[in-house]
Amino acid sequence: MIKVGVIGLGMMGNTHLDVYAQRDDVEIVAVADIDPKRLAGKEKAGGNIKGQAQGGFDLSKVARYDEGKKLIADKNVDLVDVCLPTPLHLEFGKAVLAAGKHLLTEKPLARTAAQAKELAAAAARASTLAMPAMCMRFWPAWVWLKEAVADGRYGPVHAATFRRVAQHPGGPFYEDGDACGGALLDLHIHDTDFIQFCFGKPKAVTSVGYSSITNQIDHVLTHYAYDDIPLVAAEGGWAMAKGFGFQMQYCVNFANATATFDIGRGPAPIVQEPGKEAQTVPVSPAMGYTHEIDYFVRCIAQGHKPTTVTMSDGAQAVRIIEAEAQSIREGRSVAIV
């Protein structure tokens, strides 16, 4: 039985708790948060996708700490799930690894590419396992897309576009661009990472964007350059009008089919092949959080290092994001080295 402690009881912390609570091969033994109301279960953060942060787990049943380092020191904890604000990922991630515990850390891996590289290096030296929670690599409709690209069932990809836009989530952390990195780092990184997952590291990025809520980029559109794919692009932002909600979509045009996904339409992708009826692809209705935690728990139980997403992958995603920010600032394409 793997014993789990979760640090940070915001949207993602509660979402992860919901997932762990449904498993019979792990036991939640501790939680930590500096907010006494959250720690007491009197205040809960909401999500932007239906099914997030349901808050059904009874916090009174486990050890509760008012500081994350106290949880890390708890000898009863095997796996620490870090769901803290981005600037704290490096400090707490390294502390978890130094304590000889397994680490699942929320995205982005760190606030800067240099910090992300440092954390990935610490994980490589550790005797325990570590993984960044890049949930789109585990989202069923996106897993299907990755497989369709990899096995070439519809021929080569001619164009792939991704879109993730929302109204601003509000709150002090998300209003502080220096802390959250704006939508570019906090939201758009999902698509940047998934693009590198499907197609490898791009040769270069060309981005346009603007700031409107924070002092960082709140809305971005990026073209990712590849030798063998004419068009790969992603739009991301949280500057939409209040009431807009959240949209997550992709459209991938293969040589012999077009595949689309829209979370507002449901959990499944739709494939249109020439001269045929459009087909809805059967996939699991579960969100990526369920599958990513299932994967990491199995890695720990079997003693296998994660390969679906690695700490180095997480660090490279932050590096690409920083290149996108540089492209916006300088008005030019930026090579990814």
Low-confidence stretches: none
Determine the fraction of residues in helical runs and give it as a percent range: 25-40%
Mean pLDDT: 96
Order of helices and strands: EHEHEHEHEHEHEHHHHEEEEEEEHHE
Cα radius of gyration in angstroms: 20 Å
Strand content: 25-35%
Number of distinct helices: 12
* Strand neighbour order, sheet with most strands: 14-13-12-11-7-10-9-8-15
Q: Roughly how many Å apart are the termini? A: 42 Å
| Main sheet specs | 9 strands, mixed
Count of beta strands: 15
What structural class should be given to the helix and strand makeup?
alpha/beta
| Shape type | globular
Question: Care to describe what's here?
Answer:
- With 337 residues, the chain is an alpha/beta fold.
- It is 34% helix and 25% strand.
- The strands form two sheets. A nine-stranded mixed β-sheet has the order 14-13-12-11-7-10-9-8-15.
- Strand 13 and strand 14 form a beta hairpin.
- The mean pLDDT is 96.
Briefly summarize what is shown.
With 337 residues, the protein is α/β, with parallel strands linked by helices. The protein has twelve helices and 15 strands.
Name a few traits of the molecule.
337 residues, alpha/beta, 9-stranded mixed beta sheet, 6-stranded parallel beta sheet, 15 strands, globular
